Predict the structure.
Amino acid sequence: MKPQVLIVENTRTMRETLRLLLAGEFDCSVATGGESGLEKMMERPPDLLLSDVNLDGIDGYELCRRVRAEPRLQHIRVVFLSGYPPRAGEAPSSQPDAYLLKPVQPPQLIAQLHALLNRERGPNEPPIHLDQES
């Protein structure tokens, strides 16, 4: 059975590109924003959330905080995929398990998602940061 990934991205082209790219390895569903993503996760919690940071309504950091605060969703790995570097000063509860900067090579993205799904989460574990040079 493939791991379930929810892609939260407000840009249609990017959302569909990610869905098609990951479909061979993951069971993908999509949401257009933070609120709809949270609703989908409450209905059917995925194994991993792949989210942009800049979203309409609640942004990726707030979405991550809400996932971490909800007991039914705390197990979900959170990955940010963004064209912007991480914001300084965000609370630990708003930090993803990994932060990937666009553009990211497809094999690197897929490998990173598999690695996160197979890794035990440690307490206060810092996020992994990857950029296009990694």
